[in-house]
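Narrative of activities, Objective 1.

The group set out to show that a structural description can be obtained from nothing but a protein's sequence at a throughput compatible with the screening campaign. Below is one input-output pair from the validation batch, recorded exactly as produced.
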Amino acid sequence: MLILIAGLVIFLGSHSIRLFADGWRSRQIERIGAGPWKGLHSLVSILGFGLIVWGFSMAKTTPVLLWVMPHWTRHLTMTLMLLSFILLAATYVPANWIKAKVGHPMLAAVKVWALAHLLVNGMLVHVILFGAFLIWAIVGFAINRRRDRQAGVTYPNAGVARNLLTVVVGVVAFVLFAHFGHLWLIGVSPL
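Output recorded for this entry:
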């Protein structure tokens, strides 16, 4: 479990620098350059992610059950995951209504993803993994939205075509991942 926790601290910590130490981050980028900073950040992130995967697989060998959710929560989880994929698509489709309203759809997608997985996974290892991501995403979303409001940041909405593209990309990605990707990557079919 300690390897999983170390991985979460490293991965989420590296993704929290801009949230809690933006001035320090800017000074480091100025000192060493944007390219080396991105490279260093990527290496730290990969290390953290690797430790998460390794620690999670080790921790699953000694399961500690905290709760069992009713079967119907699987349907709620699938609905939330569809929403998460649409939010994720909104991150990458430029000038869509969801990004204009939400501001930070990637963080919103992580919140929904983590909550959805907590609904159907009552093992301690799952609670640590998804709970850590949920807390990080809630805090990050709140900080970024507050910064946007203070700076008067708004996001453009280019109209119906972009909004439709966002939803279609999200739904297609969800269907493909639910039917093929989750089993292939995680080893468990959500269906």
